[in-house]
Amino acid sequence: MIITQRRVILSKTFEGGVLLPDNKYLTRNIPIDAISLPSKVIIPFTFYGCKECKPIVKEGDEVCTGQVLCEPQEHISVFIHSSISGVIKKIGEFPHPIFKKSYGALIESDGKDSKGYNGGERNWQNLSKEEILNIIKEAGVVGLGGAGFPTHAKLRIQNKKQVDAFLINLIECEPYITVDERLAIERFSEILSGINILLKVLEAKKAYIAVADNKKELIEHLKVNTSTNENIEIIVLKHRYPQGEEKQLVKAALGRIIPKGKLPCDVGVVVDNVQTVFAVFEAVCCKKPFYERVITVTGQAIKQPKNLLVRIGTRLQDVIDYCGGLQTDKLRVVFGGPMMGITQDNLDMPITKETSAVIFMPFNKNDELNESSCIRCGACVDVCPMGLLPLEMNKIIKSKKWDDLEAYNISECMLCGACAYVCPVNIPLAARMALGKKALTNMKKVKLKKDGR
Amino acid sequence: MAVDLVISSAPYIHSGKSTKKIMLFVILALLPAVFASIYFFRISAIYLISTCVISCVVFEYLIRKIRHKDIAVSDLSAVVTGILMALILPPNFPLGAAVIGCLAAVFLGKEVFGGIGSNIFNPALVGRAFLMSTFPVLTTTWYEPISLQAVTTATPLGLMKFQNVATDIQSLFWGNISGSLGETSAAALLLGGIILLLFRIIDWRIPLSYILTVILISLSFHLVDPANYAGPLFEILAGGLMIGALFMATDPVTSPVTKKGRLIFGIGCGLLTMVIRYWGGLPEGVMYAILFMNALRPLIDRFTRPVCFGG
User: Fold this and answer.
1) Closest Cβ opposite residue A387 in set B13, B70, B307
2) In this structure, what DSSP letter does residue A170 have?
3) Where are the domains of chain B?
4) pLDDT digits over A14-70, tens only?
5) Measured between beta carbons, which residues in chain B are less than 8 angstroms from residue A342?
6) Is the ipTM of this complex over 0.90?
7) Cα separation of A191 and A218, whole Å?
8) How many CB atoms within 10 Å of residue A90?
9) Model pLDDT for residues A181-196, shown as the tens digit of each residue
10) At what angle do helices A274-285 and A188-202 cross, to 10 degrees?
C-alpha cells in the first residue's frame, strides 16, 4: 500500500462562538474502565422524536444480556436490548434524563451477565448495504453525540441524495468530556473498520476526521494510524465552542454551507460521532447489540473522575459509588456537557444511550446568577454561531409575542448557550430560546389543526 | 449524607462577564484622561470630577429608591456617567450647575426610560446638552490650561472656525490647549481607547469608522481649500472627537448591536460631526452628532439584521 502524508489543514474555524476553559485534564489521560455489573438497571423505551416502543417481554420474564426487549413500531426507531441478565421486575414509568418520565423496564441482575445473543466475528465485506443497515437497526445503534437519532434512519434518508463525504466528528467541543478522545486513542483500528463499513453504506468516496487543535496527542495518533488509508483525511479545526455542531463543523471542515432548515446530506455530507462509528463496528463485525457505551464521569465534585464503559440503564447512584463518591453535598449533576446538558435531581436516573457524560459540578452561592435587564451590549450577537439576535428574541419571548419570533429565525437556534455564557447581565438566553422554540412549535401545531378542520 | 442536587437551565458555566466588570474597565480606561485633566486644569478638575461622580451616584440611588426599583448603583454605570459628564465640561464650571447637569443626565438621560439598558441617548451627552441650553454662556467659557487664566479663550475649533487660526498639532495631541476637562489630551484618550479595545470592552468598528470618516471628509476639503479647512490631523485631535469616538459613541446601550450597524453608526457620527463643524453655528458637533445617531440606533439595528447561517 502506498504511504502518503495526510494533508492537515491548520486551524479552520467558523464565525462567532466562544473560547471555553476546556477542563478536559480531569479525565483526558485516564484509560477507559468498565464499571462493575450493576445490581439493577432501568431501560427506557423512548427515543428521539419517536413514539414509545412496545415491549415484547413482560414482568417476571428472565432476560439475558443483549436480548431484545422492544421492537420498533415505525421507521425512525430502533430495537432496544437488555443490558444485563436477570429478571424484569417492573414495566412502567421511570425517570428519564431528557423526557423527565418515560415508559421502561426495571431489570434486576442475576449477577451472571449471561449473553442472550450469538456473538462472534463477521466479515462485513460480504454484506450488502441493506444487510448492514438492518444489522445497525437491529443492534439499536443511535447517534451517540447526544441527540440519539437512530443511525440506520439517518443513513437511509440519503438514498435519494448523493453523498460524497463522510465526516467523523471528533471535535468534542463541550468542556470536560473526553470519551471520544479516549475511544479514538484506545480503539482506533476498530473505528477505522467502522469508517469503512459506513463508507460502503453511504457509497461515499472519502471520509474526513475532524478534530480540534486542543487535542495534540490525538492528532499525532490519528496521523500515524491513518497514514496508509488514502480515503481518510484528517482535518484540524480550531478549538472553539460550538465547533462540534453539525452546521459549524461541515462549514469549517469542508467549506460547505448547509442552507437554513436543511441537513448535512443536502450538501452531500453525513456526519457521525466517533462513538457511533465504533458502535456500528461492534454491531456489524462482532454481532454485538448496543447495550453499553462509554461516558465521561467528571467534575470537581466527584472523587475519582473516570472514562467509564457503562451498561445502558445503570443508575446514577451506581456511577457515583464506582467513582469513589461525592466531594460536596450541594452540587449540580449534569447529563451531557456543561453548555447543553440537563441537570438531574434523582439518584435513580438511568444512564441512557444519549448520555455522553455525567458531570458533577459543585454549586456555591455565587454560582446563582441573577438576571437583570439587558444593556444591549451585543455580546450575544457577536458570539452567536448562527448569526441570530438573541437579545431581540429575548425581548419578544418575554413579552410573549410569539408571532414575531419566526422573523428572527428562532428555529435555526440550536441552543448552544454561547449567548448565555457571555451575557454580562446573566439573562438565561438559552433557556429562553428553548421556551420560544417550544411555544412556536405548539402554535404551529394548533394552526395546523385549525386549518385541517 | 443528604445531597442537594440543584436544578437549573443550561449552560452551567459562565464567562464571569458582568456590567460591573465592563464599567470597571471603562473607568480604568478613563483614568489617563482624568489624570491629564488634573494635570492641565489642576484643582478645578478634581472638584468637578468628584462633584459629578458623587451627584450621579446619589441621584441614581434616590431615583431608583423613589421608583421602588432595585438599587443598581453597584454596577458602577453612574460612576462612568459622572466621570464622562465632568470630562466634557469646561474647567472652572460652577459646581452647582454641574449638579443640575448630572440630574439631567441620570434622570432624563437614563432613569426616565427605565434605567440602564432602556435609555435611547447617551446619559452624559444628554446632561451636557441640557447644560448647553440652560447655561449657554457658562458652557462656552474656556480657560487656558495650567495657568487657568481667567481670561477666556476660544477652543482650537473655535479659533479655526471663527478666526481661522490653526493650533499646532503637538499641543492638540498632548492636550496643552483650552477646552473641556478631559477632551483636550488626545494622547490620554487614545491610551484609554487602546485599553478598551484590547480587553474587548468596545468593538473597533464604531471608533474606526467614525475617525476614518472624519479623516476622509477633512482631507478632501483640506486638499481643495487648505486656507479655510484644517487638515485631518487637526480635525481628529481637536475638540471632543476622541472622547466621543472612543467613549461616547461606543456606549453599548445606545449604539447598534450588529456589526454592519456599528459601521453605519460610526460613519453617520463622523458625517454629522463634520457637517456641524463646517456649516453649523457651533464650532463643535460631536455631541449632537452622537445624540442624533443614538436616535437612529433602533432603525439602524432594524435594517442591518444579520443574515442567519445558511439563510
Assistant:
1) B307
2) E
3) 21-134, 155-302
4) 888 999 998 999 999 999 999 999 999 999 988 765 566 788 888 999 999 999 998
5) 10
6) no
7) 14
8) 14
9) 999 999 999 999 999 9
10) 80
